[in-house]
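Appendix B. Chain record.
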Amino acid sequence: MLLHQGFVCQLTLLWKDALNTKNRTSSKPRSVPKAYFAFGFGILALGFSAIFVRAADAPGTVTAFYRMAIGSALVVLPFLNQARREPVSQKKGAIWLAILGGVFFGLDLSFWSTGIVMSGASIPTLMANTAPVWVGLGALFIFREKQRKNFWVGLLVAMVGAAIILGQDFSLAANIGIGSALGLCAAVFYGAYYLVTQRARAHVRTLPYFWITTTSSAVFLFVVNFIFGHSLIDYDKSTYLNFLGIGVLVQVFGWLAINYAQGFFSAPIIAATLLAQPVLTAILAWLFFGEAFTPWQIIGGIAVIGGVYLVHRSRTGIGEKPSPVSGPSPSDGKRTAKALKTLD
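Structure tokens predicted for this chain:
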């Protein structure tokens, strides 16, 4: 009981701190343990997101709608309170970018959640985590950002791993293969969301951006469910509890905890550690649903995670040696700042 009360107390403090608009760079050292708790809880919450989708007796897009709608409803009052004190953005175009980001995130959730319903929680989640690959390609072709050698090696390794998994899944059953392919499609749209966020977050603070993208995603998913004729009501009690779990624990507390932790840890550490999410989801799916893997799926999964890690390494400069004469260049600082803004 005392452990439960302490955990709830920590979540309450994280909620207040994550919604605080003050700069966290001046936080005292005693806040660092709280940051570790936040980061651990955030990863655990994200790992459970696919479990909630899998457990809900509803179409994936319906679960995704409730995730965003509940998240929007819980954050609307803090958002309005902040909006009264300061403008959401000095640049009107940034708000439209935030709305576009929400649409891309809604597309991501549509493909990912449908893939989970069709083929299980693990593989679609793993495939969706190839998003950094598509971010790098988008940055190359849209923003003309040059990519390093490690990026292309990581791209090749990740795509070989994805091909192995897709080939294995289609050989098992068509619906399993399609579900895995939908996870890969989700990664493309999450990559698009990532790129839009990179631009919009330069002009919109964390909380307003969170609420605008969450709300626009909810509206988009409402339209998607209307088009496909999916009912949003008349589900059993356990399904509504899953809706509540993914909305509160994942979308609100999970993402706000990750955002809070980003004020204490570098972007490379955040990016590399988040690769634990598909592994955690796989473990949870095995525990809750008995999802098992073939040897080829394991080989492909290791290749995907390894490839994505190389992509992260190339885009964040992990492992680079600073110049012994001049130290880090100004471009290194800009690149890290851009990574932080994108992740925030």
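Further analysis of this model is presented in Appendix C.
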